[in-house]
Protein backbone atom coordinates (compact mmCIF):
# COMPACT_ATOMS: atom_id res chain seq x y z
CA UNK A 1 0.00 0.00 0.00
CA UNK A 2 1.34 3.40 -0.98
CA UNK A 3 0.56 6.76 0.63
CA UNK A 4 1.52 9.96 -1.18
CA UNK A 5 1.87 13.31 0.56
CA UNK A 6 1.64 16.22 -1.86
CA UNK A 7 3.34 18.45 0.72
CA UNK A 8 6.39 18.01 2.88
CA UNK A 9 6.56 17.25 6.60
CA UNK A 10 9.44 17.42 9.03
CA UNK A 11 12.02 14.65 9.07
CA UNK A 12 11.05 13.39 12.53
CA UNK A 13 7.41 13.19 11.40
CA UNK A 14 8.44 11.12 8.40
CA UNK A 15 10.40 8.77 10.65
CA UNK A 16 7.47 8.45 13.05
CA UNK A 17 5.10 7.49 10.24
CA UNK A 18 7.53 4.98 8.78
CA UNK A 19 8.14 3.42 12.19
CA UNK A 20 4.48 3.19 13.16
CA UNK A 21 3.36 1.87 9.77
CA UNK A 22 6.20 -0.31 8.36
CA UNK A 23 3.77 -2.01 5.97
CA UNK A 24 3.08 1.27 4.19
CA UNK A 25 5.25 2.85 1.51
CA UNK A 26 5.25 6.62 2.08
CA UNK A 27 6.16 9.19 -0.56
CA UNK A 28 6.55 12.79 0.64
CA UNK A 29 6.42 16.15 -1.11
CA UNK A 30 5.21 14.77 -4.44
CA UNK A 31 3.68 16.86 -7.20
CA UNK A 32 0.49 15.89 -9.05
CA UNK A 33 2.53 15.00 -12.14
CA UNK A 34 4.85 12.61 -10.27
CA UNK A 35 4.53 8.92 -11.10
CA UNK A 36 3.98 7.92 -7.46
CA UNK A 37 0.50 9.45 -7.62
CA UNK A 38 -0.59 6.81 -10.11
CA UNK A 39 -0.10 3.91 -7.69
CA UNK A 40 -1.25 5.61 -4.48
CA UNK A 41 -4.04 4.11 -2.42
CA UNK A 42 -4.10 7.23 -0.22
CA UNK A 43 -3.22 10.83 -1.07
CA UNK A 44 -2.63 13.32 1.73
CA UNK A 45 -3.07 16.85 0.42
CA UNK A 46 -4.16 20.38 1.27
CA UNK A 47 -6.71 19.91 -1.53
CA UNK A 48 -5.83 22.63 -3.99
CA UNK A 49 -3.75 20.30 -6.18
CA UNK A 50 -6.47 17.69 -6.66
CA UNK A 51 -8.31 18.00 -9.97
CA UNK A 52 -10.11 15.74 -12.43
CA UNK A 53 -6.95 15.23 -14.49
CA UNK A 54 -5.07 13.89 -11.47
CA UNK A 55 -7.91 11.51 -10.61
CA UNK A 56 -7.80 10.08 -14.14
CA UNK A 57 -4.17 9.09 -13.58
CA UNK A 58 -4.83 7.23 -10.35
CA UNK A 59 -5.39 3.50 -10.67
CA UNK A 60 -6.08 2.37 -7.09
CA UNK A 61 -6.88 5.58 -5.20
CA UNK A 62 -9.40 4.92 -2.42
CA UNK A 63 -8.95 7.70 0.12
CA UNK A 64 -8.18 11.41 0.00
CA UNK A 65 -6.97 12.85 3.30
CA UNK A 66 -7.48 16.63 3.07
CA UNK A 67 -5.24 18.48 5.53
CA UNK A 68 -7.63 21.43 5.65
CA UNK A 69 -11.32 21.94 6.37
CA UNK A 70 -12.63 23.23 3.03
CA UNK A 71 -13.13 21.04 -0.06
CA UNK A 72 -15.14 23.43 -2.24
CA UNK A 73 -12.40 23.76 -4.88
CA UNK A 74 -12.05 20.02 -5.42
CA UNK A 75 -13.72 17.93 -8.19
CA UNK A 76 -16.41 16.59 -5.85
CA UNK A 77 -18.55 15.00 -8.56
CA UNK A 78 -15.65 12.97 -9.94
CA UNK A 79 -14.56 11.95 -6.44
CA UNK A 80 -18.08 10.73 -5.64
CA UNK A 81 -18.35 8.91 -8.97
CA UNK A 82 -15.14 7.02 -8.22
CA UNK A 83 -16.34 6.16 -4.72
CA UNK A 84 -13.23 7.74 -3.17
CA UNK A 85 -13.51 8.44 0.54
CA UNK A 86 -12.66 11.90 1.76
CA UNK A 87 -11.65 12.94 5.25
CA UNK A 88 -10.44 16.28 6.53
CA UNK A 89 -8.89 17.77 9.66
CA UNK A 90 -12.04 19.38 11.00
CA UNK A 91 -11.43 20.60 14.53
CA UNK A 92 -7.69 21.27 14.44
CA UNK A 93 -8.23 24.90 13.48
CA UNK A 94 -10.31 25.75 16.51
CA UNK A 95 -7.52 26.86 18.86
CA UNK A 96 -5.58 29.21 16.55
CA UNK A 97 -8.72 30.57 14.88
CA UNK A 98 -10.52 31.22 18.15
CA UNK A 99 -7.42 32.93 19.55
CA UNK A 100 -7.18 35.04 16.37
CA UNK A 101 -10.81 36.14 16.64
CA UNK A 102 -10.38 37.01 20.32
CA UNK A 103 -7.15 38.90 19.60
CA UNK A 104 -8.85 41.09 16.98
CA UNK A 105 -11.84 41.76 19.24
CA UNK A 106 -9.67 42.73 22.21
CA UNK A 107 -7.42 44.87 20.02
CA UNK A 108 -10.40 46.87 18.75
CA UNK A 109 -12.14 47.02 22.13
CA UNK A 110 -9.00 48.22 23.90
CA UNK A 111 -7.94 50.60 21.08
CA UNK A 112 -4.65 48.85 20.39
CA UNK A 113 -4.38 49.93 16.71
CA UNK A 114 -4.73 53.58 17.78
CA UNK A 115 -2.22 53.14 20.62
CA UNK A 116 0.31 51.57 18.23
CA UNK A 117 -0.27 54.33 15.69
CA UNK A 118 0.36 57.07 18.24
CA UNK A 119 3.53 55.39 19.43
CA UNK A 120 4.99 55.82 15.95
CA UNK A 121 4.63 59.61 16.23
CA UNK A 122 5.44 59.70 19.98
CA UNK A 123 2.05 61.12 20.87
CA UNK A 124 1.03 60.91 24.54
CA UNK A 125 -2.77 61.02 24.38
CA UNK A 126 -4.92 59.20 26.91
CA UNK A 127 -8.15 59.72 24.97
CA UNK A 128 -8.42 56.38 23.21
CA UNK A 129 -12.10 55.43 23.57
CA UNK A 130 -11.49 51.95 24.99
CA UNK A 131 -14.49 49.90 26.11
CA UNK A 132 -15.09 46.51 27.72
CA UNK A 133 -16.18 43.17 26.32
CA UNK A 134 -18.32 42.25 29.32
CA UNK A 135 -22.02 42.63 28.64
CA UNK A 136 -21.72 42.54 24.85
CA UNK A 137 -23.30 40.00 22.49
CA UNK A 138 -21.69 37.88 19.78
CA UNK A 139 -23.67 36.14 17.04
CA UNK A 140 -21.64 33.24 15.67
CA UNK A 141 -22.50 31.84 12.25
CA UNK A 142 -21.44 28.20 12.31
CA UNK A 143 -21.17 27.18 15.99
CA UNK A 144 -19.34 23.93 15.28
CA UNK A 145 -15.89 23.04 16.60
CA UNK A 146 -14.36 26.42 15.76
CA UNK A 147 -17.43 28.48 16.59
CA UNK A 148 -17.88 26.73 19.92
CA UNK A 149 -14.27 27.42 20.89
CA UNK A 150 -14.76 31.09 19.99
CA UNK A 151 -17.88 31.05 22.14
CA UNK A 152 -16.03 29.47 25.06
CA UNK A 153 -13.38 32.18 25.06
CA UNK A 154 -15.92 34.98 24.69
CA UNK A 155 -18.08 33.63 27.50
CA UNK A 156 -15.04 33.83 29.78
CA UNK A 157 -15.10 37.59 29.13
CA UNK A 158 -18.77 37.87 29.98
CA UNK A 159 -20.04 37.92 26.40
CA UNK A 160 -23.46 36.51 25.55
CA UNK A 161 -23.20 34.07 22.66
CA UNK A 162 -25.85 33.29 20.05
CA UNK A 163 -25.09 30.49 17.61
CA UNK A 164 -26.74 30.31 14.20
CA UNK A 165 -26.94 27.13 12.12
CA UNK A 166 -29.29 25.25 9.83
CA UNK A 167 -30.96 23.04 12.44
CA UNK A 168 -31.11 25.15 15.57
CA UNK A 169 -29.55 22.24 17.44
CA UNK A 170 -27.92 23.20 20.73
CA UNK A 171 -24.17 23.73 20.56
CA UNK A 172 -21.45 23.91 23.18
CA UNK A 173 -20.63 27.38 24.55
CA UNK A 174 -23.72 28.98 23.04
CA UNK A 175 -26.25 30.66 25.32
CA UNK A 176 -28.78 30.28 22.54
CA UNK A 177 -28.92 28.77 19.06
CA UNK A 178 -31.11 30.05 16.24
CA UNK A 179 -31.71 28.82 12.70
CA UNK A 180 -30.59 30.56 9.50
CA UNK A 181 -34.19 31.58 8.75
CA UNK A 182 -34.28 33.68 11.95
CA UNK A 183 -30.95 35.42 11.35
CA UNK A 184 -32.28 38.64 9.86
CA UNK A 185 -34.56 39.26 12.85
CA UNK A 186 -31.76 38.76 15.40
CA UNK A 187 -28.80 40.57 13.84
CA UNK A 188 -29.68 43.83 15.56
CA UNK A 189 -28.83 42.31 18.95
CA UNK A 190 -25.20 41.60 18.12
CA UNK A 191 -22.13 43.68 18.87
CA UNK A 192 -20.08 41.10 16.95
CA UNK A 193 -21.19 39.01 13.99
CA UNK A 194 -18.60 36.27 13.47
CA UNK A 195 -18.75 33.82 10.58
CA UNK A 196 -16.79 30.58 10.45
CA UNK A 197 -19.13 28.97 7.93
CA UNK A 198 -17.76 26.72 5.18
CA UNK A 199 -18.49 27.37 1.53
CA UNK A 200 -21.60 25.44 0.48
CA UNK A 201 -24.44 26.12 -1.95
CA UNK A 202 -26.51 27.19 1.07
CA UNK A 203 -23.95 29.64 2.48
CA UNK A 204 -22.77 31.20 -0.79
CA UNK A 205 -23.81 34.88 -0.76
CA UNK A 206 -26.00 34.12 2.25
CA UNK A 207 -25.52 37.61 3.68
CA UNK A 208 -27.24 40.28 1.61
CA UNK A 209 -27.54 44.05 1.76
CA UNK A 210 -30.55 43.72 4.03
CA UNK A 211 -28.53 41.79 6.59
CA UNK A 212 -25.98 44.57 6.98
CA UNK A 213 -28.72 47.18 7.22
CA UNK A 214 -30.22 45.14 10.07
CA UNK A 215 -26.96 45.20 12.06
CA UNK A 216 -26.01 47.82 14.63
CA UNK A 217 -24.06 50.76 13.19
CA UNK A 218 -21.34 49.93 15.73
CA UNK A 219 -21.17 46.19 15.00
CA UNK A 220 -17.91 44.46 14.16
CA UNK A 221 -18.42 41.98 11.32
CA UNK A 222 -15.81 39.22 11.18
CA UNK A 223 -15.48 36.70 8.36
CA UNK A 224 -13.13 33.83 9.15
CA UNK A 225 -14.97 31.18 7.14
CA UNK A 226 -15.09 31.64 3.37
CA UNK A 227 -15.02 34.73 1.19
CA UNK A 228 -18.13 33.86 -0.82
CA UNK A 229 -20.42 34.34 2.21
CA UNK A 230 -21.13 37.87 1.01
CA UNK A 231 -20.59 39.69 -2.28
CA UNK A 232 -17.64 42.03 -2.00
CA UNK A 233 -19.63 44.97 -3.33
CA UNK A 234 -22.29 44.54 -0.63
CA UNK A 235 -19.73 44.55 2.17
CA UNK A 236 -17.80 47.48 0.70
CA UNK A 237 -20.98 49.54 0.54
CA UNK A 238 -21.85 48.70 4.14
CA UNK A 239 -18.40 49.83 5.27
CA UNK A 240 -18.25 53.00 3.16
CA UNK A 241 -21.77 54.03 4.16
CA UNK A 242 -21.04 53.39 7.86
CA UNK A 243 -23.85 50.86 8.09
CA UNK A 244 -21.49 48.80 10.26
CA UNK A 245 -18.67 49.92 12.52
CA UNK A 246 -15.79 47.71 11.42
CA UNK A 247 -14.96 44.55 9.50
CA UNK A 248 -12.21 42.05 10.21
CA UNK A 249 -11.72 39.88 7.13
CA UNK A 250 -9.51 36.81 6.99
CA UNK A 251 -11.04 35.46 3.76
CA UNK A 252 -11.96 37.05 0.43
CA UNK A 253 -13.66 36.27 -2.87
CA UNK A 254 -10.26 36.55 -4.60
CA UNK A 255 -7.09 35.46 -2.83
CA UNK A 256 -4.47 36.85 -2.68
CA UNK A 257 -6.42 40.08 -2.28
CA UNK A 258 -5.49 42.35 -5.23
CA UNK A 259 -3.49 45.43 -4.25
CA UNK A 260 -6.05 47.73 -5.86
CA UNK A 261 -8.88 46.32 -3.72
CA UNK A 262 -10.55 48.95 -1.53
CA UNK A 263 -10.51 46.74 1.56
CA UNK A 264 -6.80 47.53 1.97
CA UNK A 265 -7.37 51.24 2.49
CA UNK A 266 -10.71 51.51 4.29
CA UNK A 267 -10.11 52.86 7.82
CA UNK A 268 -12.86 50.67 9.27
CA UNK A 269 -11.55 47.41 7.80
CA UNK A 270 -8.84 45.06 9.00
CA UNK A 271 -7.34 42.83 6.31
CA UNK A 272 -5.96 39.53 7.59
CA UNK A 273 -4.38 37.53 4.72
CA UNK A 274 -6.05 34.17 5.48
CA UNK A 275 -3.73 33.53 8.42
CA UNK A 276 -6.12 32.97 11.32
CA UNK A 277 -5.65 29.20 11.33
CA UNK A 278 -1.87 29.23 11.02
CA UNK A 279 0.03 27.67 13.88
CA UNK A 280 3.30 25.87 14.42
CA UNK A 281 1.19 22.92 15.57
CA UNK A 282 -0.97 22.69 12.42
CA UNK A 283 0.70 19.73 10.70
CA UNK A 284 1.29 18.02 14.03
CA UNK A 285 -2.44 18.08 14.79
CA UNK A 286 -3.33 17.03 11.24
CA UNK A 287 -1.06 13.99 11.50
CA UNK A 288 -2.73 12.87 14.72
CA UNK A 289 -6.04 12.57 12.86
CA UNK A 290 -4.38 10.95 9.85
CA UNK A 291 -2.55 8.35 11.93
CA UNK A 292 -5.72 7.44 13.80
CA UNK A 293 -7.59 6.98 10.52
CA UNK A 294 -4.71 5.08 8.91
CA UNK A 295 -4.74 2.58 11.77
CA UNK A 296 -8.45 2.02 11.22
CA UNK A 297 -7.96 1.73 7.47
CA UNK A 298 -5.28 -0.93 7.81
CA UNK A 299 -7.54 -2.88 10.15
CA UNK A 300 -10.31 -2.82 7.57
CA UNK A 301 -12.44 -0.32 9.49
CA UNK A 302 -13.98 2.06 6.97
CA UNK A 303 -15.78 4.27 9.54
CA UNK A 304 -13.10 6.96 9.54
CA UNK A 305 -12.99 10.14 11.58
CA UNK A 306 -14.00 13.40 9.86
CA UNK A 307 -15.65 11.87 6.79
CA UNK A 308 -16.53 14.63 4.31
CA UNK A 309 -19.89 14.60 2.55
CA UNK A 310 -19.06 15.88 -0.92
CA UNK A 311 -22.69 16.82 -1.54
CA UNK A 312 -22.82 19.09 1.51
CA UNK A 313 -19.25 20.34 1.11
CA UNK A 314 -18.22 19.56 4.68
TrEMBL record:
- Record carries keyword NAD: yes
Q: Where do the coiled-coil regions begin and end? A: none
Task: Note whether Repressor occurs among the keywords.
Answer: no
Give the CDD domains listed for this entry: 2-Hacid_dh_1
What are this entry's molecular-function GO terms?
NAD binding; oxidoreductase activity, acting on the CH-OH group of donors, NAD or NADP as acceptor
Residue ranges constituting the D-isomer specific 2-hydroxyacid dehydrogenase catalytic domain according to the UniProt record: 8-308
Ranges for domain D-isomer specific 2-hydroxyacid dehydrogenase NAD-binding come to: 102-276
List, alphabetically, the Pfam families matched.
2-Hacid_dh, 2-Hacid_dh_C
Q: Which UniProt keywords apply?
A: NAD, Oxidoreductase
Q: Which domain of life is it from?
A: Bacteria
Q: Which family does it belong to?
A: Belongs to the D-isomer specific 2-hydroxyacid dehydrogenase family.
Q: What is this protein called?
A: Phosphoglycerate dehydrogenase-like enzyme
